Every structure is written in structure tokens, then in C-alpha cells.
Amino acid sequence: MACEERGIDSNTFLFITTISMAKRERFQTPAGMRDILPAEQRLWKLFAEYAASVGSSYGFERIDTPIVEFSDLFRKGTGEGTDIVQKEMFSFATKGGDELTLRPEGTPPVIRAYLEHGMEKWTLPVKLFYLGPMFRHEKPQAGRRRQLHQFGVESIGEGDPVRDVQVMQVFFAILSKLKITDVRMELNTIGCSTCRPKYVRALKEYYRNHLKQVCADCRVRYKTNPLRLLDCKDEKCQRVKVSAPQMLDYLCEECRNHFKGVLELLDAVEIPYMLNPHLVRGLDYYTRTVFEIFQGEVSADPLQDAQKRLALAGGGGYDGLVKMLGGKDTPAVGGAMGIERVLAIVAGRSQEEYEYPGRARVFIVQLGGMAKKRALVFMEELRGANIKAGEAFGRESITAQLKVANKMGADLAIILGQKEVLDNVAIIREMDTGSQEIIPMAKLLDEIKKRLKKKSA
Hints:
Number of domains: 2
CATH topology of the largest domain: BirA Bifunctional Protein, domain 2
CATH class of the largest domain: Alpha Beta
CATH superfamily of the largest domain: Bira Bifunctional Protein, Domain 2
Number of helices: 18
Shape: elongated
Number of strands: 16
Strand order of the largest sheet: 1-5-6-11-10-9-7-8
CATH architecture of the largest domain: 2-Layer Sandwich
């Protein structure tokens, strides 16, 4: 009766109701998570290829750990008092009663794998890199998501300062390949179990007289994890931190020598850095060297700078983590880079700037049915010679196909029309200059190889 009163028949009313329900039931990604669409995949592949290439060049080998681990791994490894464990873990219980967590960071799983697979018997140091998603149940905001992706490196089993510097070199090399040059690194040491307790006592003594001036979270940190007082981004806490004691004044001789070695090696390889005596990391396992790499210049107001900046990469030493997770006392150092943050910088640039690994360096342009058949045959010849070829067979005009070739970053375009097929030739076009030359088909493959080799030299 209701539909009759509205002047519509029952079938129309049912159709409208169905459409309305479908709109209400349309699914979207959960808050803080997003799809990586095909148009973005080229940049993601670029980063993955660059990161793997750089990591391998420094002797790091890839490891992939499960996305899900036992929750206790992070409670024990990352630290009960950290924000990750207290606020940000995606945890759940299985039907069998296991407590599992979507991994919020990469280091504890790598150390778990190191111990589980007996890597301590390998040639030391064991150098591993990983790349994949991490999950943190924090408030989504600019630069922070609930599903994020990280590239990380870990060097386990050798305590020489050169290992700290190698980790930093990896990140700088990746940023350099991506042509992100306006970066700076802040550096500090937070000592070891020998010298840090004395510093923590001095830090608590200082903050005891300033507890009313810091945020509620920091009043909790004062009792549970005093070093984290220096990591708070709240403006009033930043102002209190300015006059806090510095770890550099409390270092034992071994930590002092280690940090001195790191600085000397950084100078030797000409990696720019700034000492930040109040820099700490938010995870409990860190020891000695800690670092963060940022993009951009230092603000005139360091307090304002701390509020606005987002680190592209960061890390440090964690000499006690292997023992904490059941192994022997083992020196180690590592770090991680936020892939979304790095690609957000690269995304605004012309993609023609980058040499894409595995890109199609040759593009086949064809016009007409005969040319399309010849193009298909020649593409198989190129693949047989390990030369990746691109095409846009669905485009009709030469101009439209050349636009696709330019977008792909091809070095050469091979143009085939009906006349070229009948004459058994092809036109080879240099994409950077636009110059063209007619080449017999019998010599085309050799000519392509010669030109690509010259461009790669």
C-alpha cells in the first residue's frame, strides 16, 4: 500500500529499494588502509627493484617473515612500555587459543628467524633485508597509516662501528638513486646497559621538577620508560626537553669509542649528519647508535621543526635483542625506511627521470593488419634475445602509440606499416632525439642490440 500511495508500482519500488540497499552495502577499505592501484605500481616496483639492488650491493640478502607472529614476540622484543605494544598492535586470538599479532615492525621477526633457523652458525655478520607491509592501529593522519610498508636491513653478529655506517649507507644510496637529495640525518648514542642507568637517573631527577609541565603520557613514561620522555612530540614536552641532560655526558669508555668510530667513518664516506643529543628511538631494544633521516632543511625554530617533520628512515643498534629472545649475547644494528613516505616525494616528479629496472626499452609501433602480424613475430624475436618490448596494439594512430612509448620510457621505437612490411624493412626511431632510420629486417635485431648497448655505456 505504501508504494501505491507514493504513485509508483511495486516493481519500481522494489528496484529503488534494492539500489538503495546496494549503495549502503558498498564496501570500502578500512580506515588507514588503501589500495595500490595499477597507475602507482610502476613506482612501487621501482622502489622494490632499487632497494633490492642496493641491499644486495652491500651484501644483504632478502628474508620474508610471516605477516602474523605470536603476540609475545612483540611484547618481549619491542617492549611492554612502547606505544606499539600499548596502543598500536592488531592482535587477535585463534580458535585454538593462540594469541597472534599482525607484525607492527620488522626487527623482532627477523631475530626470531635468525634464532629459529640457526643463523648464528652462519658466517658473521648475518646481513638481511626485508620489504613488506606492517600494521599499526594508530589514528590515520598525514604520513601515518594503519597498513604501511617498510624496507629494512639488519646486520647481526658483529659490533664494529662500520656495521652501523653500512646500514645508513644503504638508505642514503636508495634515496640517491631516487634523486631525493635534500635529506639530513640526525644522530645520537643512547649508551648501553653499563652507562645508561646512570643517565636515566639523571634524566628522572631533571624531569621530577617538570612533571607538571609535560603531557599526561609523559607522566606515565616517567615511571615506565624515562628515555621515551625525549621522544614526545607534544610542544610543551619539547620545550622541557631542551634543557634535559645529554647521554653524551654519561657514556662509558666503550660506548664513547664506538660512537667516535661511527662519526669518523661517516666523515670518511662523506655522509652528512647532525648530532642531536636528545634523539632516542621509540622501541626498548635500541642501544648505542640511533639515527633518523629526514627530508628538508632544519627549521629556524627547532621546536616547530620537531612538530612538522616526518622521518623517511631510522634505526640503530640493538645489542641485547638476540639474548632477550633466547639467544646468546649478540651485537646487531639495523633500520627501516617508510616506503609510502619516500614514494610520496617521488610521485610528484616526472617519472621519465628514473631508469626503471625491467622497463621496456624497445617499443613496437604498428599500423594496419599486416604490420600487427609482423610486430607480433618480431616481439618474440626480441623476447628470445632477452629484450623487453612494449606495445599498444589497441591504439590506431602512430602518434597515440608513440605517446605510450614515451610514457613507458622506451629508448627506441620500431615503426612498422604496410609499406615497411612489403619492403621487409622497419623504421627505428630514437625516442630522445626523434631521429629515424630505415633498417632491413634482417639487420634490425643486431642494430637494436648495438644501440641499446651504446645507451647503457
